[in-house]
């Protein structure tokens, strides 16, 4: 068993020899012999082949299948993990289509198929009896009584496995639905599902949606092309899904890749059982149906030799370094389009509650966040039929404003047809320092100090000069000016809120914040998307220039060459790390150790060493807890994704909770 709740599943459709159990057992053992997995799943009736027809009536075939099962069971004495294989089994006076679970050298239990397809190309009812209330609780195999029934769950470490067989999944209420409510988190399907046009997509959708509905892993293995092709062709489609997402799938006949005939299909995937457990706890409605469940389930604990439990350390699961930014271009564009539409729709509705053409005030810094808010506002006023002039885009240069962002801001305002204004806030700030008797960055000021003289002195300060009041006064003056101008559109993004990287009651406050649920790592892609799809020409190129600007609050003076000195990421750590932590901390509820482990498996844009990653995570956790008081009074704004920090909707936490133990 891996650490951190990682459970490895190998799903395989080995070569099949119709009606030759010994050959099939041999092929299975050859196929899975070197596989190191917690669970190996093989197809429906894999020991005989699914397409044996009336040969299922042959004693020779049935005895051979039982012998094949014993061989596979024996092989698990020397291997890690459980194996689940399909075979025909005599139960009382009938023949049943079953899945046998073997582990640690023994047969742990047998689960029969509940729903037999006997329509169109299928006629299982001719050979088998479905599971039913009269089924025995045990069945004799090679002189041993083995647990038998659809009420069996198999526990291996943190995994609780339930089994269904092919058609079971294609019914309105698959048996795995009840089993999941009874505690199963790994649902297994042994299948023989032939390929016809469009069926693979349907099968994949069923697997994905059942894994999502049951908040579980779902492993599906269909018979391979070695089955008889008298009438049907089987593709060997193996799929593993986890809570609605496909984690991996094998090749299959008809997948459009050559060569078309592959004897053996398989896929190996790592499932995250801790993530599933977290999601089940969070979705409180998940087991509301529990008291309507039929008879209780029997749980069989699988025993394996302790010496064989050590697992490989290389994770097969892809750990996305940028969970908020899809790496595939098409998916990224689709996501940006959807998010931009949600942001605009949120604002359009809010506008509908205001007197027409109320001034919408936005502070335009030339940075990414305010640009995105402006673009959303443009979309919203256009859609609401308000004139663009109702947007009041105001630049408010201060002591730290650089020419680069100032120029971007001016050009942005010019090229969008909004009402523009520029208010130099420095005199107001100087007056405020006087009133507060505050020495900005330690500099002496008196009645002779002018904005120009103060700016000169500020520009000569060393790079490490710091003064929080100096920064906050500028931010608060800007907000005061905006608030007296109209309905203020907030610009702060979700990552800033997570870290508390905003001045309380300044850029933290607004009347509506369209960026409230946008992670920082996605902002530049949203701006680029808008540039490419809605605002082409000159404005489009300007937006691309803005998208390339370093992230900075520009509250401290620029460096002597006029460039941005205060780089946010060098103060608080890289946003790509913070967004990674935010996703796993809030969305998945993972521990510090688990987040560090996942970070060690991800490929970030920058090559951070483990010390930097750990230190940045500590900074994230400390800031996240310390700054809940800011999040507890944020303005309304649209949620766009599963991760959201709204104190009304998604993340309710006392402001005085300590993060010491996290
Ligand atoms: N704020 C945000 N801004 C931009 N992107 C954001 C984001 N939060 C998550 N994302 C991204 O969205 C993607 C999908 O997120 P992930 O956490 O995997 O989301 P997932 O659990 O797969 O759910 C996808 C969507 O379906 C919804 N869902 C799923 C299952 C059940 C229910 C229900 O109501 O019962 C709803 C869920 O709320 C979410 O909106 C990820 O790439 C994630 O990083
Ligand atoms: N020079 C400025 N002129 C007008 N508004 C400003 C100026 N500087 C900051 N603001 C306003 O304050 C908000 C927060 O500024 P800050 O620079 O701290 O954050 P930011 O997240 O980097 O924002 P942006 O990416 O928009 O610069 C900005 O989004 C903007 O609305
Ligand atoms: N073996 C089965 O139960 C096959 C039936 C299933 N509906 C399929 O076509 O894949």
Task: Describe this structure as you would to a colleague.
The protein is built from 19 helices and 20 strands. The model has no long low-confidence stretch (mean pLDDT 95). The protein has 662 residues and is an alpha/beta fold. It has a seven-stranded mixed β-sheet with strand order 13-12-11-10-9-8-15, with helices on one face. A six-stranded mixed β-sheet has the order 5-4-3-2-1-14. Strands 18-17-16-19-20 form a five-stranded parallel β-sheet, with helices on both faces. It has two domains: 3-284, Carbon-nitrogen hydrolase (Nitrilase/N-carbamoyl-D-aminoacid amidohydrolase, 4-Layer Sandwich), CATH 3.60.110.10; 329-565, 3-Layer(aba) Sandwich (Rossmann fold). The longest helix is centred in the middle third of the chain and has 23 residues, at 329-351. The relative contact order is 0.09.
Features:
elongated; binds glutamine; single chain; Rossmann fold; NAD+ synthase (glutamine-hydrolyzing) activity; alpha/beta; six-stranded mixed beta sheet; Rossmann-like_a/b/a_fold; NAD; ATP-binding; Nitrilase/N-carbamoyl-D-aminoacid amidohydrolase
Which strand order does the major sheet show? Answer: 13-12-11-10-9-8-15
Poorly predicted spans = none
Query: Could you say what the CATH architecture of the largest domain is?
Result: 4-Layer Sandwich
Major sheet description: 7 strands, mixed
- The outline comes out as elongated
Share of helical residues: 25-40%
Number of β-strand runs: 20
Whole-number average pLDDT?
A: 95
Reported by name, the CATH topology of the largest domain is Nitrilase/N-carbamoyl-D-aminoacid amidohydrolase
Number of alpha- plus pi-helical segments: 19
Family: In the C-terminal section; belongs to the NAD synthetase family.
EC number: 6.3.5.1
Keywords: ATP-binding, Ligase, NAD, Nucleotide-binding
Organism: Stieleria neptunia
């Amino acid at each position: 068993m891996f650490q951190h709740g990682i459970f490895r599943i190998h799903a395989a459709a080995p070569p099949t020899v119709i009606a030759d159990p010994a050959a099939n057992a041999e092929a299975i053992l050859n196929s899975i012999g070197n596989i190191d997995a917690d669970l190996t799943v093989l197809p429906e009736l894999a020991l005989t082949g699914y397409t044996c027809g009336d040969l299922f009536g042959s004693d020779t075939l049935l005895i051979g299948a039982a012998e094949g099962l014993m061989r596979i069971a024996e092989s698990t004495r020397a291997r890690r993990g459980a194996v689940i294989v399909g075979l025909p089994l005599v139960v009382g006076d009938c023949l049943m289509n079953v899945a046998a679970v073997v582990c640690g050298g023994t047969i742990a239990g047998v689960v029969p198929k509940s729903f037999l397809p006997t329509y169109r190309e299928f006629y299982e009812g001719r050979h088998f009896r479905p599971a039913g209330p009269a089924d025995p609780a045990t069945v004799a195999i090679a002189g041993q009584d083995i647990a038998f029934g659809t009420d069996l769950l198999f526990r291996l470490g943190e995994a609780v496995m339930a089994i269904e067989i092919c058609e079971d999944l294609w019914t309105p209420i698959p048996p795995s639905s009840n089993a999941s409510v009874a505690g199963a988190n790994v649902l297994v399907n042994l299948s023989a599902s032939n390929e016809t046009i469009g069926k693979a997509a349907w099968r994949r959708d069923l697997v994905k949606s059942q894994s999502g509905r049951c908040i579980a892993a779902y492993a599906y293995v269909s018979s391979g092309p070695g089955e008889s092709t008298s009438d049907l062709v089987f593709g060997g489609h193996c799929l593993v899904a986890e809570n609605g997402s496909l984690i991996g799938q094998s090749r299959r006949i008809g997948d459009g890749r050559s060569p078309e005939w592959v004897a053996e299909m398989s896929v190996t995937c790592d499932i995250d059982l801790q993530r599933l457990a977290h999601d089940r706890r969070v979705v409180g409605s998940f087991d509301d149906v529990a008291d309507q469940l039929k008879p209780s389930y029997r749980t069989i604990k699988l025993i394996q030799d302790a010496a064989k439990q050590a697992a490989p350390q290389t994770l097969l699961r892809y750990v996305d370094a940028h969970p908020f930014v899809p790496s595939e271009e098409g998916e990224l564009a689709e996501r940006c389009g959807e998010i931009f539409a949600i942001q605009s729709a949120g604002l359009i509705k809010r506008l509908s509650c205001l007197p027409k053409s109320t001034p919408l005030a936005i502070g335009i810094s030339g940075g990414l966040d305010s640009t995105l808010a402006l673009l959303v506002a443009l979309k919203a006023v256009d859609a609401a039929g308000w004139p663009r002039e109702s947007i009041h885009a105001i630049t408010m240069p201060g002591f730290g404003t650089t020419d680069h962002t100032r120029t971007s801001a001016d050009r942005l305002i010019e090229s969008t047809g909004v009402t523009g204004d520029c208010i130099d806030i420095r005199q107001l700030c100087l007056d405020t320092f006087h009133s507060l008797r505050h020495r900005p960055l330690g500099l002496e000021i008196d009645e002779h100090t002018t904005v120009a003289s103060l700016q000169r002195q500020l520009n000569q300060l060393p790079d490490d000069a710091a003064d929080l009041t100096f920064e906050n006064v500028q931010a608060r003056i800007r907000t005061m000016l905006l608030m007296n101008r109209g309905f203020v559109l907030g610009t702060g993004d979700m990552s800033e809120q997570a870290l508390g990287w905003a001045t309380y009651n300044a850029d933290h406050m607004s009347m509506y914040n369209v960026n409230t649920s946008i992670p920082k790592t996605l902002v530049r892609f949203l701006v680029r998307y808008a540039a490419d799809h809605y605002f082409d020409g000159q404005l489009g190129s300007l937006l691309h220039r803005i998208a390339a600007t370093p992230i900075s609050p520009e509250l401290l003076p620029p460096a002597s060459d006029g460039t941005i000195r205060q780089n946010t990421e060098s103060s608080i750590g890289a946003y790509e790390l913070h967004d990674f932590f935010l996703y796993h901390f809030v969305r998945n509820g993972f521990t510090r150790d688990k987040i560090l482990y996942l970070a060690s498996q991800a490929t970030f844009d920058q090559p951070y060493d483990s010390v930097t990653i750990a230190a940045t995570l500590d900074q994230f956790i400390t800031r996240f807890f310390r700054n809940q008081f800011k999040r507890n009074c944020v303005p309304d704004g649209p949620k766009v994704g599963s991760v959201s920090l709204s104190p009304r909707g998604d993340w309710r936490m006392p402001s005085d909770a300590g993060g010491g133990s996290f």
